[in-house]
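#struct-help
A.M.: can someone run this one for me? Single chain, 363 residues.
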Amino acid sequence: MITLISLSLEDYIKEVKKNFEVLAYREINRVYSYGFLSEISPEYPTFSYNAMFMEGAISLQQPIRISQPLRALSYLELRRAKKYESTDLENILVLSAVEAYLDAAVLREKERVLKEILDNLERAREISGHFYKTGALRFSEVKVLEVKMDVIRARMEMVLGNLKKVEEMVRFYYGGEPGEIFLPEVETLPRLDSLIDLLEKSPSLKRREHLKKSKMYNTFSKMLPLTLSPGILYHNGDLYFSISFSVPVWVLRYWGEISSSRAEYKVEEYMYKAEREKKIAQLKGLYGNYLSSLETLESLENSLKKMENILELEEENYKTGKLGLYELLILYNEVLDLKIKVVEAKAEVIRKVYEVKGLVGTL
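D.P.: on it. Structure tokens below:
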């Protein structure tokens, strides 16, 4: 079990890629690698005994399909498609793990800020009791403060419940106790046209491209149904060299296999075009959301800076006696509440960045 005091998102992703599920996806490629070896090898020799007019002949023949090279190319493209498929599945898992990490980071920050807000409200409640006795505050204002504390406590319970659930998923993906989790800095994405270029090389589209090629070679292989079988014939104590060949007799079956293979190729061709258009549309949508989330974050950060400046001025007023502690604590809580919104907005931008990375295959 691995335990760290502090865990960055990059280190977390490195460990996630050692997850058992990821290792299982990588084994898919090994399965098809071994299958390719059997596909390029010649078929098993055939040993037969033929009775001919009360005499027997023993033959050993090696069938050789004329279409064998094309069948091997078809399987090679299928193996490449499976390799990209395993990479695509790995990216999907990593993206889910990143989502859990960001959720945990946001919830931990919320927990910290809510505790601070609750402490401030507790101090404000104590002060409000004194103000109520002196007539500076009405009874309803004191009760409103208590209601706010109940609301914050309810929010805290919800945050802690969600945090417990999310941290279990982080442990699963990471393979141990992750330690301290924190939000990374916001990354700047490249231009949209650069991302579209990367998308063309993404695992999902490359998988479709190689599946299409696999079906193409498979169709060509079915157009060469001839099988040659050179061999050795033993008869009456003598050895002879023999050769035979076979071609399909049932023309309807042969035509049906070729037509079916051609249809499968067309399916993959259309699926590639459809998935490409779909991925480009998804990328444009995600990129638009990223820009919108970035603007929201910048707006909230500017608002937070303004509120912090106001807080600094009010702290000076408090020191000079122009502002009471009660009013100062209420303002301080507004600043802390705005900090939560900034953290949520920052996490949303980072999510969009990693969703784009997952889509173009750069995780």
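A.M.: thanks! DSSP finds eight helices and seven strands in the chain.
D.P.: also worth noting: Helices lie at 9-16, 20-40, 68-134, 139-174, 192-199, 203-222, 251-319, 325-360.
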